[in-house]
Amino acid sequence: MPLEHPEQAEFDMDAFCKRLARYMAQEGMNPAQLSKRAGLNARAVTDIQQGRIKSPRVQTVMALEKALGLSPGALLGFGPAAVSSELQELLNELDEATQQQLLVTLRSLRKM
Q1: Mapping DSSP to helix (H, G, I), strand (E, B) and coil, where does residue 81 land?
Q2: What is d(CA 50, CA 89) in angstroms, rounded to the nearest whole number?
Q3: CATH assignment of 7-81, given 1.10.260.40, 3.20.20.210, 3.40.50.300, 1.10.287.90?
Q4: Backbone dihedral angles phi then psi of residue 98, each to the nearest 5 degrees
Q5: pLDDT in tens, 90-105
Q6: Using CA atoms, how far apart are residues 96 and 58, in angstroms rounded to an integer?
């Protein structure tokens, strides 16, 4: 059932931190490396993980997702599963028409 007032939904920092740790481990990154890749101060991820930041800003979450190669909303528990960074790099090299052709092909394979 959808929330009547989504702006009143509580932020689940514990779940956010667990997802963050899982994605960092998948990428083999420590907090300082992720902070740097995301363009944040060196202690940003550590501060989030240790509870010094109770609710990260939207821009921070988006920077972390981008640095980890995640879809928007993935750290918040929304959206599709993460795409591996290698796959994301390959997709980024393709023009829009080729990406669309690939998508059609993948959809047809899923139906088999």
Answers
A1: coil
A2: 31
A3: 1.10.260.40
A4: -70, -40
A5: 887 888 888 888 888 8
A6: 28
67 Cβ partners below 8 Å, 6+ apart? 34, 37, 38, 39
- The number of CA neighbours under 13 Å toward the Cβ of 48 is 27
3-state secondary structure (DSSP) of residue 67: helix
All structural domains of the chain with their residue ranges: 7-81, 83-112
Q: Are 27 and 61 in contact (CB under 8 A)?
A: no
For residue 91, the one-letter residue type is L
The span from the CA of 109 to the CA of 2, in Å, is: 33
Give me the amino acid identity at 38. Answer: A
Asked whether residue 45 carries a pLDDT value surpassing 80, the answer given is yes
- The encoded tokens of residue 49 equal 């993980």
At 69-91, the pLDDT tens digits run 998 888 988 866 555 677 777 88
CB atoms within 10 A of CB 35: 23
